[in-house]
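Inverse folding, one chain.
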């Protein structure tokens, strides 16, 4: 078993009987209580393990998969189909969700037109994520009594908040640097990268390209998730 998962299991086993474990993720929000491809999850408790995130859930169709001894990253079945309409750009024009196998949502059908692509990917509702975490706590920590509940108001880690700020700067037309392979970073982040040790900078850029590849389907997807 990996060390990170062992630390999480020990934390869960120390909790009182019937404790509520509140989780959050920057992948979901009150206006978008679902996600696709993968989801990183943190626990809203100062006593929780001090990781950037506690768990990562991936789908059965994830090309990278996960190892049998790496418990913090695990596969869970999708409960949603996420319908997307694409034309140009690196984001879909519209997205809609339905239960797995249900017909295409009406608003997605209405948005389809010549030259636009209709893509369907698997996704999870926050309810399905909560059930997967409850199952993890039951199987690995022996704690079926714990209640793992989503906190839509959960605050992101400072690093996530900074990343959101950088993304907003780019959207508002702030100065950017094009690092190639479709990866564009805000000018302020470039200043921080240049101030880093070279090895640290290269490792961080590798992670950026990996995340970019997972989200947009291009570039190097070898970066770490954790």
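Residues assigned per position:
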């Amino acid at each position: 078993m990996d060390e990170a998962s062992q630390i999480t299991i020990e934390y869960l086993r120390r909790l009182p009987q019937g404790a509520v474990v509140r989780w959050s993720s920057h992948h979901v929000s009150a206006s978008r209580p679902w996600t696709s491809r993968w989801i990183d999850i943190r626990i809203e408790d100062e006593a929780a393990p001090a990781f950037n995130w506690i768990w990562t859930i991936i789908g059965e169709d994830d090309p990278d998969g996960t190892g049998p001894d790496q418990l913090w990253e695990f596969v869970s079945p999708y409960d949603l189909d996420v319908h997307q309409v694409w034309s140009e750009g690196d984001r879909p024009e519209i997205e809609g969700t339905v239960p797995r196998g249900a017909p295409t949502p009406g608003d997605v059908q209405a948005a389809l037109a010549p030259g636009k692509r209709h893509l369907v990917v698997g996704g999870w509702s926050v309810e399905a994520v909560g059930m997967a975490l409850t199952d993890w706590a039951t199987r690995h920590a022996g704690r079926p009594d714990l209640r793992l509940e989503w906190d839509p108001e959960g605050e992101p880690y400072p690093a996530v908040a900074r990343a959101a700020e950088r993304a907003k700067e780019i959207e508002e037309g702030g100065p950017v640097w094009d690092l190639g392979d479709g990866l564009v970073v805000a000018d302020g982040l470039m200043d921080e990268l240049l101030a880093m040790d070279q090895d640290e900078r290269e490792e961080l850029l590798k992670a950026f390209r990996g995340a970019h590849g997972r989200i947009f389907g291009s570039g190097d997807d070898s970066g770490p998730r954790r």
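The mean pLDDT is 80. The longest helix spans residues 198-216.
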